[in-house]
């Protein structure tokens, strides 16, 4: 594998920076870690081939500082940049800047990043490619009268969503005509504050859908494959907490239909590298909601299911290699589940940065932990609260759940509060064990209803 790139700069931090670093090392490619002053002792820095400080703790002055990251790449002789997820991973302008400086952006083209970053444009593109959508407006809704007309056509409740949104920001539910104007106004204000873009659209609010996403990969010659679906329905305030592969809700027919529809659409689009199409699934029907043009936080459950290193595939494709295999060559085995462990109070979800006094990760057959924690590390207060991902695999879903319960009991993070106790409660619940949940279930579970 040596020779694909001379050196890869990893424009991220924490567990995902460490994950990419390990893939590069497996491939014989030197890598560069970047870090803020707050992350000088972070694990991805301590294990790096070389590292560069790119700014003070605030993300906008370090991990979101495109000029500093590009300077670090040029100074260290890197010829490619891997953005990981978050920060600049879905920033089309950054991808263009990388290419303009003669470097390779390890990800999709800037044009596809830009298209899919605008949810209105993404839905329009998918509609032309034959992908089913949630009923709603044809585009941006700029006047409340338009919103009322759409709601009258598709029926209440409706969801007002930011075109440039993510993470639940700029998203409001209107259950009836009386609440529509307030939802529309607040969603626009949130979108403007969070994304600098107040554009919103309207779609039908589904009462009990599953959140199903499909991992796809495409090379520059038009070959497209998928690596199966992930069920990401366990969410709190639109933030995923636990993911499964495959989904306990899908039949073999639905799974095949999803894969065929999505890969055909991406082939026609001329997409390249990794991507994830996200759908709502209810009453046997899929409806596209958005596409993420990057590696997902939950990619390890897919890797556990099919045994393929997705970061390695990203790097190969970015270097101009073809996939070298077809859909029929991808084999899926057993069941995998991931828990996102956050540095948060498990009762009220308040962030809990601080000193990790002791740390013990679980192990054993079919158990994987992606984390940059270690005893003596001080979790900084400046970034996302995700500190570890626990991933388990078993021959069956029941066996994977049993392995997950055992692993959660073994997992110890002393000194800060984490969401480990919440995950133990979820896994012990009979409804979860039966696979009987939807995207609203966890909110009710946390509230005790």
Descriptive keywords:
449 residues, alpha+beta, Rossmann fold, Dna Ligase, domain 1, D-amino Acid Aminotransferase, Chain A, domain 1, 3 domains, eight-stranded antiparallel β-sheet, five-stranded parallel β-sheet, 15 helices, 20 strands, 27% strand, globular
Task: Note down, in words, how this protein is organized.
- The chain is α+β, with helices and mostly antiparallel strands and about 450 residues long.
- It folds into three domains: about 10-105, Rossmann fold, CATH 3.40.50; about 135-205, ATP-grasp fold, A domain (Dna Ligase, domain 1, 2-Layer Sandwich); about 210-445, ATP-grasp fold, B domain (D-amino Acid Aminotransferase, Chain A, domain 1, 2-Layer Sandwich), CATH 3.30.470.20.
- It is built from 15 helices and 20 strands.
- The chain has an eight-stranded antiparallel beta sheet, sandwiched between helices. A five-stranded parallel beta sheet has the order 3-2-1-4-5.
- α12 (about 395-410) runs antiparallel to α13 (about 420-430).
- The chain is globular.
- The N and C termini lie far apart (about 55 Å).
- The mean pLDDT is about 95.
